[in-house]
Amino acid sequence: MSTLVLKFGGTSMADPARIRKAAEKVAAEVKRGHKVVVAVSAMAGVTNQLVEYCRAIAEIYDPSEYDVVAASGEQVTSGLMAMALQQLGVEAESLQGWQIPITTTSAHEKARIDNIDTEKLKSYFKRKVVPVVPGFQGVTRDGRITTLGRGGSDTSAVALAAALKADRCDIYTDVDGVYTSDPRLVKKARKIPSIAYEEMLELASLGAKILQTRSVELAMNYNVPVQVLSSFGDAVGSDMPGTLLKAEDEMMEKQLVTGLAHSRDEAKITLTAMADRPGISAAVFGPLAEANINVDMIVQGASQDGDAADMTFTVPRADLPRTLEALNKNQDKIGFKRIISSADVAKVSVVGVGMRSHAGVAQMMFKALADKGINIQAIATSEIKISVLIEESYTELALRSLHKVYGLDS
Amino acid sequence: MSTLVLKFGGTSMADPARIRKAAEKVAAEVKRGHKVVVAVSAMAGVTNQLVEYCRAIAEIYDPSEYDVVAASGEQVTSGLMAMALQQLGVEAESLQGWQIPITTTSAHEKARIDNIDTEKLKSYFKRKVVPVVPGFQGVTRDGRITTLGRGGSDTSAVALAAALKADRCDIYTDVDGVYTSDPRLVKKARKIPSIAYEEMLELASLGAKILQTRSVELAMNYNVPVQVLSSFGDAVGSDMPGTLLKAEDEMMEKQLVTGLAHSRDEAKITLTAMADRPGISAAVFGPLAEANINVDMIVQGASQDGDAADMTFTVPRADLPRTLEALNKNQDKIGFKRIISSADVAKVSVVGVGMRSHAGVAQMMFKALADKGINIQAIATSEIKISVLIEESYTELALRSLHKVYGLDS
Asked: Considering the domain boundaries, does residue A410 fall inside one?
């Protein structure tokens, strides 16, 4: 008998029929004898509608009243889910954030969870009643409603699991797990049975939009096993059909590379013939930081224009015009000859905790790309990740080659 | 400086533009120096949508979870109204039922208010912050969300006014007051500036669907002046543009007849040649009470079929088939010869507290109808009301004649 937190996302709560389907999964776990807490998102689209109302009332609205409005979406689904469970013969009761309570900071619209009182939840276990908790919601110490920011329901679920020392947190969503690469681009992509938190963080921040990054960090900090699985099939969490996130040291066999990520959301900028003097980096990136533009990969090298060095870096593609404007405005202060920019680039990354203990992973990547005639325009690495910038049109070819080279095809 | 409760119904909250318009009325009252509490309904249509979700989940649903779902509609508008007030420079904050708290019985879906803690509300007055309270909502002593039943927002508003000993409760709605008769039928119908609670109760129960009956009873019990007024025009409550409900003994001049009501929602049934024996009424109305059918006007008279008496009574038109079924099934037990039924009837009523002290009011009505050749099929009276049943096609003619006879045209 395990303690489980089962979380259902917006597409799993989209309408009464989907809610009934989700309730069947909960009922199946209860029947197997597990202690279950359910966490729910709002119906797909509802939160957007509520945000629209707020924006129509006031361009700059009071975040604490936004929270009152936005939190209502999960209140609705928590009540409906409790009804659906009762209909299946499972005793259930909804518990709003203030009723538990889930205490948060008072940073409205993006509150952080301070504490979850587990006493009431545990009393529900004793009475064999399933508590249904709205995700996304909390309450400040002085009793005002808060929300955790978009996608916050994942965080609520993991926090509940951490507070209850649950055996697992199952996140039911519209994908059936984490894949070795994007199956739309790489036919041989396979579902990963288990993945380390750190790998998931790298994949998440690299563009795999499955779990809110914050919820993965929280799971890692509290060592909560989290399973990502589909709410559409017939399998339930205890059948372990999805991808399980766990601690690196609990991975039986560490793969050299666990998965590939890619992002087309990049633009490349090269400043040529830069003066080679101290403080030059600050001169370049200061104005960009002020404009709230995130710089990612940075490379310095021999100049295309004479003796001085060139500097190449990437920014989000949507920020390219603003970046060029900020740089041009500061040309004299920075000191460069030309700006060369291109949006025709993609970032491809290999991720795996096995890299920590294996040399040569990067070399395999560079060789595989060279064999296909793909030029590497920039490189960035972390302990468990190597990213390269390439011409966008080579994205699929690069992913397929790397998928094969790192043994992910089999 | 007065203490006012301003309540806005669903059509006044229908969309962000309407909410902004309602907020302007609140702001105008605040500007005049009044202490204001705002009570809001859900956006028009939202509660129906939420009820539909519940019904789609379970035919017989848990009323306490229904309350969790249904209460969310007013939560949304309370937050939006607070934002809209802030946008106009008025300090405002939403307060849910559980935050005040508004304590109710635990009869979910139709809870009754036990107590409203006014301490927090008064602290808002001191800080010059307008509390925006969702109507319809409450909380049980053990912290579960409740709702007061459909139309319960009026009751919330009046209860808030009673608890705060407010000078007036303004109910903003989609009509601009209570009329001497239905203006669609009687062109000369006029808005009534003030009306006694008892008169409003008779009018409300007779079919004028302006205020929830329960809220009028509550206003009467606590002697809360209630103004019904339109949220569409430019006037605000303190201009007294609507109809004011107040105690009979505060009416300066008592009209003989204050207004006329009519209802086409009636059906007439006559049982002929009934045995004249004790217990006969119980034999007739027992089966109807069991079938939950409300019997209204009852007349006994000489029979159309021989010596024994006939009995005539009315039931809601929608219940006619079920009524006939129940009577036919019990024909032997009741003992009657024939059933004659007709849905071609209307009930026309004159209402006025002045009747208490004036004889001849009924006689004026009977004569006026006789002058127009309108046959009276049944009569029912209370201290302040006379109702007659007539052929439906004469409804307009009857209303117009009575409107003139009782001096309401001028």
From this structure: no
